Fold these 4 entries.
Entry 1:
Amino acid sequence: MQTALAFPEGCTKLELSLASPMLNAKLFVESIFATLLVFAVLWIFSVFPYDIKFLNPIKLLMKDFKYTDIYYSKLADRDKPINTEIVLVNIGNLDRGGIAAAMYGLQQAGPAVIGVDIMFYSQRDSLSDLLLKEELSRPNVVVTNILHPQDDPPSVVNSHDYFGDLNYAYANLVAGDSLNSTIRSIMPFFDEGGYYAEAFTSKILQTYDEGAFEDLSSRSNKVETINYYGTYEQFVSYEAEEIIFGEFIPETISGKIVLLGYMGNFVGDASILEDFKYTPLNHEVVGKSIPDMHGLTIHANILTMYLYRQYIDMMPEVQSVLLDFVICYVHVVMFMFMFVRFHLWYHVFAKLLQFLTSILLIYIMFYFYEIHHYKINATLILITVLISVDVLYLYESLAVIMYKRFGLISYFIKH
């Protein structure tokens, strides 16, 4: 004997099917709208003008954090062999006469190129300036200046005119605020509005290794992500006084790149923050305490990347956004199903899935970054997956409102 199924008054079989907390078309369709809501909420958080405590972690992550910071800070190999092609020389507290003497001593050892990361804005002692001018004017010396690309037309700030038309190249590093932001990128060339200039490291590379310079130029990237090799300990280093008094091994300088600049009172000194920058190697990944690397060492890392052809290739922005949307959508489908099917345990299951997803994603990103030098923007992916769990509560509220006002049946609505 068959028993007829009785449906609640005013409710059709189709409506019951749509309201069923199982996998169906409505789940997959509504997950698209829920995913769009996740991105909308994320955008609101990113542009919210006021300082609200619960928004601060999200805004901080979006503003100055990249998952590669974790790689460099916690996972990267810090026992790499010393790069003997680049020599760091710290001027410490030397005056101009001492800097000139150090450069003279370096030239006696026959370096391929000397990069001078120092600005001389005014004239001082006549004899010291004369000696310094002679050393700065040598053909294998590259001297830094400061590029102002925002000017119309672009302009540069050089050392004092007394030193003449030196072999200048801009020392700018890419950062929103070079004093407080993490240095992750370099602009190898500037070519806009008919104005062309080369970065300090690019011009040094051209002098030292023409083939490597051509490879850099052929990439045609306006900005390159810096693949950090290590701290000053991964490079040969001297104090300028050691050069002046001949307390060095000439073979370590002959035919090599020498970078001359300020690295504190002594190499490794972290007590003075002059020309000290934040880098991804900082031990504090979020909310950094103090800067961790002098500009001279950052230039050494950039040159190492160029010489070893260890470039970081970036996933195109369009592909990155599409990948983020797909991953977020897949998780929203699972979260929405859990929300309706296992509402009592929703947060437990969702948080567990978030944790597993985060571990898997970070592992995949690190694998591509370390092995293939390919960077995927995982920060946005992780943030959208993390906030989607709570955004579903907002979506449920909107679904209830739409049902009460317009009678629209949602996956969340049990008729």
Entry 2:
Amino acid sequence: METKLEIAINWLPRYTGMPLEKFGDYILITNFKDYVEKFAERFSVEIYGEGRAMQAATNDDGLTIINYGIGSPNAATIMDLLVAVQPKGVLFLGKCGGP
């Protein structure tokens, strides 16, 4: 049986298209692809995961942004998968709805 860590190590690159060594110590998660595009343009970095469930980019200062898509299940999934890179900090950037 695989451990949670082994699954995360396998699934994080599969979902984002980004190798684990490319993730920074600090993570911004968002539900807007435009934010990832603006980030990549601002820092002149590559976007990984085009055509995948999640897209990601990392700047030279070790800040990574990930678009997890839409929905609470996807937000929970990306948070669970980040155990693979053990970031020092994670911040949600976007908006969420409510009644």
Entry 3:
Amino acid sequence: MARYRAVFRCFAGCDGEYPLTQPLYRCPRCDGLLQVTHDVDPLRDRSATAWMKLFDERWMRTQWPYGSGVWGKREWVAPDVTDENIVSTNEGGTNLFWGERLGKEIGLRDLWVKLCGNSHTGSFKDLGMTVLVSVVQQAVRQGALGTRVLCCASTGDTSASLAAYGAAAGLPVAVLLPRGLVSAAQLVQPLAHGARVFALETDFDGCMAVVKELARRGAVYLANSMNPLRIEGQKTVAIEIVQQFDWETPDWVILPSGNLGNAAALYAGFKMMQDLGLLARMPRLCVAQAAQANPMYRAFAAGKDTVEPIHAEATLASAIQIGNPVSAPRAMAALHAMDGVVEQATEQELADACARADRTGLYTCPHTGVALACLFKLRERGIIEADQRVVVVSTANGLKFTEFKVGYHEQRLAGIAATRANAPVVLPPDVERVASAIAEMAAGA
């Protein structure tokens, strides 16, 4: 493993490199974003075919740590982390759902949904958190950190993931949540794992400002996606998608996005495969945003390369209710490199998209509803063509959003006309009444 090497370098290109175990979140020279950079030449000691074979041999194995979809690709992620410091829950390896029925409804031959919510804590955040907490574990044991407290701002899923991995490592975790903006299922996860939860009277951007200042003071280790270690783990989604198609590239990837780290992560994965010869072309990227929290959509629509902060309004897709996305420069670079587009979905559109997808066998979170609603728009306009292969990234498990689901079907979501609501039918315990209702249902099917 020693022949492979990864370090922090400035995203803007400043000189200098820094070890991954150093508690560093921004460039010391320009205060810009950092990225994990790999020495690519040593990785060419294997051919593209040999890398594919190695990754296929490790896929979902029981040999530690290769059961993980992340650590099965360890040479491309954090090659210096040793086996004993890896903190893993066998994250990744999530299935691709063939959306045959939904695809037919919208005139799309080859629709797939990457169910990243089928992970340990129910979201794609596990992919980045295993890398971050493993690197911290190694840094702690090497005496390279002044604090052992892991801390994040969160709208739900990041806090759940950090708390779980912190508990597995035996490291203390503090999470800052915007009070009243996190679902009960998401709130209970960090509480159950023993994290100290602070509910702040602000939104996500306000929580993030506090965490950044705490990290600047050295009081905590910052675990949000401003930390490029998170992006390193999340980039394996791109590699998994291609691997699951027998190393063929899809035409489109559609991604719900708030803080925009996942857009940068996907590009990093595709770019590394391209650099090492595993794929010949990039898929196109659609960054899907809620219309209530759409700073990147606004920049794209105006033809700008800079994302200006906005005040994010309340949205059912609460995890992407972010007006000042930390990873905007990284995401904009990804968008250009992948010939991407940005689309938005209204509250009505995302709620109906979830209900429509659920009727075809999916069980979608509201953030995936944003991505699906944007898919429908792009298909209607002919930007996505009927014979193209499309992958929608589902970022979280729908079971985390029971209030949203029940509210839709009971028609209790404010401002939403639940056109696909399916409320229970209340009947007496009378066989004839029930038989008649079933017959009526069958006649209308």
Entry 4:
Amino acid sequence: MKNSKFVFDKLSKIIEQGLITSKDLRSEMLSILKSKRDEIIFRMKLTSKEELEILSKRVENLEKKVSQLQQTNKKKTKRARKS
């Protein structure tokens, strides 16, 4: 209910200001939605796209190192002979 009231309030303000054309209405709605999206992201404290890419590259590098270490450990271990 709160979200719908917010949308209706914004729409009524747009109509009152005389933004009647569809392009103006569309651009105004997009700007409202983008600002709400940014507000939600800020509240959730999400990382930016650049930070996410950097972190994913770090994880990939660490996974490669772990797999290389596992392969070298398998090569070094030998079975003992039964006597």
